[in-house]
């Protein structure tokens, strides 16, 4: 695995699921890790777990990524504890309920776009300000995208638009900041067995879901993308010899589902 020895890495939405796996991969690579999550019970759980193995190398904070002041406070806390910030992984996100545009409530649209797109925007804005002023300057942003970033018929309208926006955010950021040593990369992920599907707890738009399912090969258990594999890839992309050449890349990493 690539080394992240001595780096400070911030992972949003990281007290469970994919985010936690990413955090633990960076621990294994030698990094200090800062995580936030909106759920206080999840934060308490990882604090207890990591205190046994990573004492002094992590910082946890409850934070809502849609709150600009909370995001800035998180970045400031990371720098206060570890001296700098080297990597931001914009992982926090939610799924929608497969509602098409005619059935999507304004409340659902706002919530999904706020977390999935405004969150990465706010975190990137705060991180880049830190990347520019620290010595030596520079940093890496990894945005967690989706099959829905490039396929228009893999989820509901809100999730699809949010993840397409994440890809655009990645490319625009890469274009402006690359020559400043600040690199922006997206991973466009396939299906995973994570807590993002909490959105289905109150049901889903079955007609849309069935049409999406009928338009592609079935998603079977062997198609699940291991969160550990995604986490290893995140570490790899922050390697000093890799991140400059990956700048602006939106990398499909989906266990070939749907088939290429």
UniProtKB/TrEMBL annotation:
Keyword check for NADP: yes
Could you give a GO molecular-function term held by this entry? oxidoreductase activity, acting on the CH-OH group of donors, NAD or NADP as acceptor
- Which SUPFAM superfamilies would you find in this protein's record? NAD(P)-binding Rossmann-fold domains (SSF51735)
UniProt record, GO biological process: fatty acid biosynthetic process
- Keyword Coiled coil attributed: no
Family statement drawn from the similarity comment of this UniProt entry: Belongs to the short-chain dehydrogenases/reductases (SDR) family.
Q: Which residues cross the membrane?
A: none
Name this protein carries in UniProt: Uncharacterized protein
The UniProt keywords, alphabetically, are: NADP
